[in-house]
Amino acid sequence: STLGIDLAGLEFDTLIAASLVSKDGNRINLKFLSEFYLNQPMPTFKETVTDRGYKNFAQVPVADAIAYACTDAHQTFLLKPILEKLLEENNMTKLFYDLEMPTNQVLYLMEKEGIFVDTHELKDLKIKVDQRLGVIKQEIMSLLPENLIDINLNSPKQLEDLLFNKLQLIPVKKTTGKTGYSTDYEVLLELAKVHPVPGLIIKYRELFKLKSTYVDAFFDYINPKTSKIHTTFSQTSVATGRLASSDPNMQNIPVEQIYSDINIRSIFKAPENHIFISADYSQIELRVLAHFSQDKNLLQAFKENQDIHAITAAGLFDVQADKITREQREFGKRINF
After folding, report:
1. Where are the beta strands (DSSP E) in 14-140?
2. What is the pTM of this model?
3. Where are the beta strands (DSSP E) in the chain?
4. Concatenated DSSP letters for 256-278?
5. How far apart are CA 120 and CA 267, in angstroms?
6. C-alpha angle 295/299/305, rounded to 5°?
7. Mind listing the pLDDT tens digit for each residue in 140-166?
C-alpha cells in the first residue's frame, strides 16, 4: 500500500506473463523468476513451513508470515516491468491482456462454483470397490499355497518374489534400476498367458488404483459447506500451455469402466434444475495440422467429414475404414497424435 498500487492478483498475472515468454516452461514459479531475472533468492514455502515442522501456513508465526507475504508482493512488483517488456518484445501483449487474463477470471469462477458430489453414492461406490477387491484377492489366494496367504499385493518386491521364486514363472525383463525383475503391466500381461495369478493381479491393481486415486481421495476434497469439490485450475503449470487441474485433478477421471457397476463419474451431479452438457473440439490438433501442412489426405478427410483416426487405422491394418474395430481405431488415434 505504501507504493500506492494494487498488488491483488499481481503475482498470478506475473506468473502468466512469465509462462508466455519463459524459455523454460516447466520453471515459472515466483521464486525461480526472482532468482533468474533479479538474482535475488527468496524464502521458499518448504523453508518457511515444512522444514520448521509446521503442518500448514496457518501455523507460521505472524511476523514470519508477514515477511514471507511481503517478499512475494515486493518481488512480483519488481518483476512486472521486466516481464511486460518481454511480452512486448515477443508480440504477446495482446494475447496476455485479451485472452490469458480474461480466461483467468473465468477459471476463478469455475473454481468458486465447484462440482457437486453425491456423498451417498460415493460411499456406496467405496463399499462396492472394497468388496470387489476382496473377491479378487480371495481368488488369487485360492491359487497359492497356504503359507503365502499374507502376501501384500501392493508390494512390487513381494510380487516379484511370488511370481519368479514361488510360482517359478520366467522373468520378462528387469526393473529400471536393474536391481530386480519387473512386475509392470506389460510383464503381467505376458505372464497371464501361462498362469492365472498375473491376470488377477492386473485386475486387482487397476481397481486398487481407482480406489486410492479417486474413491478414497475424494472424501478429503469435498467441502463440508458446499458438498462440492473445488479443484484448482492452472494456466501456467504445463509447458505446452494446456490447462491443468489439481487438488484434485478433475481432468483424468476415467471414462472407461472396469466393471459395469463401478462408475467414478456417476458421483458427480448437476445442481437441481440443471443438466450436464459435454462439448469438445473435433480433432482440433489435426485440423490445425491439416491447415498448416496442406496435406491432401488430411484436407480431404476433414472436408468430407470422415473419421481421421479410422482412416489411419485402415491404412495401418490394411482393412476398410468401416470395418475397423474400436481397438484398432484407438491405435490409429495414438499414431495420429
Report:
1. 115-117
2. 0.74
3. 115-117, 222-223, 228-229, 232-234, 244-246, 268-269
4. S-SBTTB-GGGGEEPPTT-----
5. 9
6. 150
7. 988 887 776 678 888 888 888 889 988
